[in-house]
Amino acid sequence: MNIPFLSLQAITALHGAEINEAVSRVVNNGRYLQGVENMLFEENYSKFIGVKYTIGCANGLDALIWIFRAYIELGIMHPDDEVIVPANTYIATILAITENGLKPILVEPKLNTLEIDDERIEAAITPRTKAIAIVHLYGRIAYTEKIGQLCKKYNLKLVEDNAQAHGCLYVDSRMTGSIGDAAGHSFYPGKNLGALGDGGAVTTNNPEIASVIRALANYGSQQKYVFKYTGRNSRLDEIQAAVLNVKLKYLTEDNAKRKAVAHYYYEHIKNPLITMPDLLPDEQNAYHLFPILVAEGKRDALYDYLEQKGVSTVCHYPIAPHKQECYIKETWNIPQLSLPITERLADEELSLPIGPAIKIDEVAEVVKLINKF
C-alpha cells in the first residue's frame, strides 16, 4: 500500500468541480489582481476568524513581516527591540522578526504540548521587549491566559503565527487569528486552508494596522502613484482568492476529517518508543500535522522503515532555528543558545500522514506498521 504524507491532488479533487469553476470564472473575467475575488475572500475570512479586517498578501512569511513592519512604521517598535518567540517553530516566524531589524528572544516549548512554555516567558522579558509572538504549531492552540496576562502586565503586543491552525479555537470560542493584536496566515497548498500556490493574509481588529499593512503590501501605496512607505509587491492574486473562497466553505468539515484520523492514532498507536503530545479538546487542535516523538535515537530508523513500506512521513523540523547557518553569527545567538528541549524535538519529531483525503484503512496500516516497529 502506497500512503503519501499528503496528496494535494486528492485534496483538490474533494472540491474539484467548484475549484475549476472558480478558476475559470477568474480567467474569463479578465481581472487577475485586486478584484472582486479578493474582496469576497477578505470579507468571508474576516467573518470566519471573527475579526474586522483581513488583508490578503503573497504568502505567510510576508504576512508576519508586514505586521512587525507596520508596528515600526507606527513608532510602536524600533530596530533592536525584542520579540519573544518560541524556539520550536518553523524558521519563518523568526525570519519575520529579524527581517525588520528586531531581536528574537527564543523561549523553549513544553515537551507535552510542543508549544511555547508560558512559565518561561516572564523571565525573558526585558525593557526592550515589545511583543510576544506565539505560533499555533502543528495546528495546536498555543495561547494561554498567562500569555494574555503577561501582555497586559508589560504592555506587549501579541502577534499570532496562524500558518498551521486555520479553524482552531481557544476555550472561550475565540478563533486563532483573532486572539492577538494581529495574526499572520499562510495559504501554502499543504495547509488546512490551502491555495493552488502561495498566498497569505493578515487579520486584525486594528484599523490603523490594517491600513498600513495594505499599503506596505502594495508597494507602500495608499493612492495610485503616491508612496507613503517603501513597500513591496505582496498581493494575493484573484485565482488564489477564488480557490480559497471555495475551500473556506468546507474548512470545518475537512478539519473534522483530520480530527477523526488523529483520534485513530491516539487510540491505536501502542509502541513504547512513541510519545504523542497531550490530547487536546477537539476544537483546540486543527490537526494540520500529527507529530509523534520517537525515543532512543530511532526517529530516522522509523522514517526509513515506513518509507520502505510505502508510507511517507516528514520530520518537522530536523534543524532547530538557532542552529541554522543563517543565524549562527547573530549577536543574540553568540555564544550559541543551548535549548535542549527544542533540540530534542528536532531529533525526535516525526509527522504521520493526516488530512481530509486519507482513508481510514490507510491510517490503520500506518498504525499497524508503527506498532510492529
Please render the helix and strand layout as text:
Elements: H1 8-14, H2 16-29, H3 36-49, E1 53-57, H4 60-73, E2 82-86, H5 92-99, E3 103-107, H6 118-124, E4 129-135, H7 145-153, E5 157-161, E6 182-186, E7 200-204, H8 207-216, E8 221-223, E9 226-227, H9 238-249, H10 251-268, E10 274-275, E11 290-294, H11 299-308, H12 340-348, E12 349-352, H13 360-372
Parallel strand pairs: 2-3, 2-4, 4-5, 5-6
Antiparallel strand pairs: 1-7, 6-7, 8-9, 10-11, 11-12
Helix pairs in contact: 2-9, 3-9, 4-5, 4-8, 10-13
Task: Produce a short descriptive summary.
Strands 1-7-6-5-4-2-3 form a seven-stranded mixed beta sheet, with helices on both faces. It has a three-stranded antiparallel beta sheet with strand order 10-11-12. A two-stranded antiparallel ribbon has the order 8-9.
List its salient traits:
373 residues, alpha/beta, seven-stranded mixed β-sheet, three-stranded antiparallel β-sheet, 13 helices, 12 strands, 39% helix, globular
> What is the mean predicted local confidence, pLDDT?
97
Strand residue content: 5-15%
Give the termini separation.
Answer: 17 Å
- Percentage of residues in helical conformation: 25-40%
Write down the Rg: 21 Å
Which runs of at least 5 residues are low in confidence (pLDDT < 50)? Answer: none
> What's the story with the biggest beta sheet?
7 strands, mixed
Structural classification: alpha/beta
Q: Enumerate how many helices there are, as a single number.
A: 13
Shape: globular
User: What's the order of the H and E elements?
Assistant: HHHEHEHEHEHEEEHEEHHEEHHEH
Number of strands: 12
**Strand ordering within the main sheet:** 1-7-6-5-4-2-3
